[in-house]
Write a structure and sequence with these properties.
With 324 residues, the chain is α/β, with parallel strands linked by helices. The protein contains nine helices and nine strands. Strands 1, 2, 3, 4, 5, 6, 7, 8 and 9 form a nine-stranded mixed β-sheet that branches.
Length: 324
């Protein structure tokens, strides 16, 4: 049976989060039956080496799932979101693969909006959703300054194309990828593979999209696709956010260098270094000791400092060895 669309959910220890996501996808099934009854789609769960009851939860849902929209389970032992997404691409039957995190709640028409957006845009390799926050507790004051780093993507009500020169790309949450674009753009191995217990580095989704743009595929924002991102209070704490922003910053050299020729990279690195130093200086002049009590300002400073250290950190820790 041909499949028009694949929903892929990479998860790590998601037994508590997956049920709500799957219930929302059940609503997507009812909505697609009502509006596009000929649309065929599937759901694949990629268990990224979980140690909880994720597999059992999926098996329970499979026993009473909608047969028209198969629910499949795959296990990926290699830790890291990049490996889980690659497993999803290998397993997907659809040419369009919509990625949801296990804390993403899609609108009932999310699949329909994604499918329709791609129909007359064959040059689009990937497109992201409009993502709204669902905070468990109110965020800190001025949190909107850093909210986009937590995959909050509210960029207006009109579709927009991400320009490579802007160095701005959508997050993987709610992202739809054209399978052909992935297969024809990405190298066998990414430099960034995602956060694990052994590594704080992130931005593997931005590296993936940068490869697509570099190969000539367009990347878009589609506000008709709406997703709500559940953010627990633990992710608003200093203990979570400071290492989180450190990981983003230390990853930045990889995505910053896309689009530059080899001879241009030293010049680009010099320019980025000067700009990072400028940002650090102005931030300290503006906020001073406030960073000790202002969590948002502390996160911003950590991002600037880690971005400055990124090329040295990546080289020292061997991230460029045997990577093409």
């Amino acid at each position: 049976m041909s499949v028009d669309f694949t929903v892929a959910i990479p998860t790590y220890n998601g037994e508590q989060r997956l049920p709500e996501v799957l219930e929302k996808l059940r609503e997507c099934g009812w909505e697609s039956d009502r509006l596009l009854p000929d649309l065929t789609w599937e759901i694949i769960i990629v268990d990224n080496n979980s140690s909880d009851r994720t597999a059992e939860v999926v098996q329970t849902f499979q026993t009473h799932w909608l047969p028209k929209y198969p629910l499949k389970y795959y296990f990926e032992p290699q830790q890291g979101a990049a490996f889980a997404r690659r497993r999803a691409i290998q397993a997907a039957q659809g040419e369009l693969i919509g990625f949801l995190d296990d804390d993403n709640l899609p609108a009932a028409d999310w699949i329909i909006a994604a499918f329709l957006f791609a129909q007359d845009r064959p040059q689009v390799g990937a497109f992201g959703s409009q993502i709204h926050p669902l905070y468990e507790t109110p965020p800190p004051e001025n949190f909107e300054r850093i909210a986009p780093f937590l995959a909050i993507t509210e960029r207006g009500s009109l579709p927009l194309k991400y320009q490579p020169s802007q160095k701005l790309l959508p997050p993987s949450a709610g992202l739809v990828v054209r399978r052909n674009a992935w297969l024809n753009s990405l190298p066998p191995n990414q430099i960034l593979t995602g956060r694990t217990n052994q590594s704080m580095l992130t931005s593997e989704d931005l590296e993936m999209l940068s490869w697509m743009q570099h190969a000539g595929w367009e990347v878009w924002y589609n506000p008709a696709m709406q997703v709500w991102h559940k953010i627990p209070s633990s992710r608003l704490s200093r203990d979570y956010l400071i290492p989180f922003f450190r990981g983003i910053g230390l990853s930045r050299y990889v995505t910053r260098m896309f689009g530059f020729k080899s001879w241009q990279k030293p010049l680009a690195l010099f320019a980025y270094t000067i700009n990072d130093l400028r940002k650090i200086l102005f931030h300290l002049l503006k906020h001073g000791t406030e960073v000790n009590r202002d969590l948002v300002a502390a996160c911003e400073l950590q991002l600037f400092l880690s971005s400055l250290a990124s090329p040295i950190y990546l080289w020292k820790n061997g991230y460029f060895k045997d990577k093409k």
